[in-house]
From TrEMBL:
Native organism: Colocasia esculenta
Domain Glycosyltransferase N-terminal, first and last residues per copy: 16-253
PANTHER family in alphabetical order: GLYCOSYLTRANSFERASE
Enzyme class: transferase
Keyword terms: Glycosyltransferase, Transferase
EC assignment: 2.4.1.-
Gene Ontology MF terms in the entry: UDP-glucosyltransferase activity
Annotated family: Belongs to the UDP-glycosyltransferase family.
Entries under Gene3D superfamilies matching the protein: Glycogen Phosphorylase B (3.40.50.2000)
Residue ranges, annotated region (Disordered): 443-463
A Pfam family that the UniProt record links to this protein: UDPGT
Protein name stated in the entry: Glycosyltransferase
Length: 500
């Protein structure tokens, strides 16, 4: 454990973390809570009963280790917001149409959170670290008289791209959603289509949400970024200049538990399925760097017909594979196809996980040599930390921008050829089996191009680990963040004393 950050006589700060109840947003916030607590900071992690149950083993381990993390469970107001009971996480929503109701429910947590933070036994909050989607937490910070820091859950490359796309007249004037356009104001040449651009002007509701987020950004004290200077220094600097505020790059935060055993990594974010735990044992029998791991995150839905194409492509590639199918993607038709020959024909070479996969533990295994990913920011960082090159298959949000970073800037990825943004797949097949096979073969290629890609990924992973070590760039940024919050509170108390 790192030495606690010297406070130089300052009161130990109290960070209140408010993650979005979505796995891709909650998991890194849990990691941040541990990183802060290991530096001697008091942390309150705001959650709900269903979400707390998912990370129960993590909570128990933090308590057993005596870390100063309090997990504050607030009742999630499903009924008041018009949600079915128990829909406390984005991946539990039965329909995307309920997304507005889900965000309404999140907003209703404002008063209960304020009440709990004002309880006499609670140490005074020093700051609120809030997910970007929780616009209402600015009001909480204002009521408490503390700074609000935004956690975006992605890197500065996509954040800067999104801001520049928004302000580009060129994107406004083009009506063709499929025409590649260059993102202005970047040190690298990056092209993306208007149809792939996240949060672009599409409808009044999207426009309203974007404007509200920009307003909240302007009011915040700064930004916490799960990234590291050595990977995107030019974009960190460019983003800070664009927003006129400090962005503390403190990642990759998934490395907080790099020395933990496999059993700890296996429960990161949720309880692993039986398939997931058996998979780790199966990987022990497979040759190093030979396995393709295919997983597409916790939110995007892949249809049975597209799953068949993925499965056939993986099989035809002749590489061993681990393939994750989410519970809500399982269907009688897909199970029938799996049972009618696929499982038998790939026995010993393929492993299908139905349920939550212990992704960090899988990627860290020496048998894994490539990762087919939806390009969520966490998955990209986890691949980099494990030194595993990626096959990019983006769906929505900033994932197409993450793909450009992995493929065009860092040179550690191969594009699967997905051209259209989509949240939910219908029966349409986005990538056919032949293209899956071809791109997997390219990813796993042992020739000069493939070896160079693996070398770059490994070197970047080493830089990530050094950034998190004592005296590393991310370690120092965490020190600066803690001291910034501590000094801010000293100044506020001093001012209040003078005014009194």
């Amino acid at each position: 454990m790192p030495e606690p950050t010297p406070m130089d006589g300052l009161t130990i700060p109290h960070f209140v973390l408010v993650p979005l109840p979505a796995q891709g947003h909650t998991i890194p916030m849990v990691d941040i809570a541990h990183l802060l607590a290991e530096r001697g900071v008091t942390v309150t992690f705001v959650t709900t009963p269903v979400n707390a149950a998912r990370i129960r083993k993590v909570i128990d381990r933090a308590e057993a280790a005596g870390l100063p993390i309090g997990f504050l469970e607030l009742r999630f107001p499903c009924a008041e917001a018009g949600l079915p009971e128990g829909c406390e996480n984005v991946d539990l929503l039965p329909s995307l149409e309920l997304t507005p109701a889900f965000f309404r429910a999140c907003g209703l947590l404002r008063e209960p959170l304020l009440d709990r933070l004002r309880e006499p036994h609670q140490p005074p909050a020093s700051c609120i670290v809030s997910d970007m989607w929780h616009l209402w937490t600015q009001g909480v910070a204002d009521e408490l008289g503390v700074p609000r820091l935004i956690f975006h859950g992605t890197g500065c490359f996509p954040l800067l791209c999104m801001r520049n796309i928004r302000s580009s007249i060129l994107f406004d004037e083009v009506n063709d959603d499929t025409k590649p356009l260059m993102v202005p104001g970047l040190p690298h040449r990056i092209e993306i289509t208007k149809g792939q651009s996240p949060f672009f002007r599409q409808d009044p509701e999207s426009e309203r949400l974007w404007n509200e987020m920009l307003t909240a950004d302007e009011a915040c004290h700064g930004v916490v970024v799960n990234s590291f200077h050595e990977m995107e220094s030019l974009y960190i600097e460019g983003y800070q200049k664009a927003i006129g505020k400090k962005a503390w790059a403190i990642g990759p935060v998934c490395l907080y538990n790099k020395n933990e055993d496999v059993s700890v990594k296996a429960v990161r974010g949720n309880k692993s399925s039986d398939d997931g735990l058996q998979c780790l044992a199966w990987l022990d029998s497979v040759a190093p760097r030979s396995v393709v791991y295919a997983s597409f995150g916790s939110v995007a839905y892949i249809s049975p017909s597209q799953h068949v194409e993925i499965g056939e492509g993986l099989k035809a590639s002749n590489h061993p594979f681990v393939w994750v199918i989410k519970p809500r993607e399982q269907s009688p038709a897909l199970e029938q196809w799996l049972a009618e020959g696929f499982v038998e024909s790939t026995e010993g070479r393929g492993f299908v996980i139905r349920g939550w996969a212990p992704q960090v533990a899988i990627l860290s295994h020496s048998a894994v040599g490539g990762f087919v990913t939806h390009c969520g920011w966490n998955s990209c960082l986890e691949a980099i930390c494990a030194g595993v090159p990626v096959l990019t298959w983006p769906f929505f949000a900033e994932q197409f921008l993450n793909e450009r970073l992995m493929v065009s800037v860092l040179g550690i990825g191969v594009a699967a050829g997905v051209n259209t943004r989509t949240m939910l797949m219908g029966d349409e097949i986005m990538v056919k089996r032949e293209a899956v096979e071809e791109s997997v073969r390219k990813l796993m290629d042992g020739g000069e191009e493939g070896e160079e890609r693996r070398k770059r990924t490994k070197e970047l992973g080493e830089k990530a680990r050094k950034a998190m070590e004592v005296a590393g760039s991310s370690y120092q940024n965490m020190t600066d963040l803690i001291q910034e919050v501590s000094l801010h509170n000293v100044k506020v108390r001093s001012k209040m004393g003078r005014e009194a």
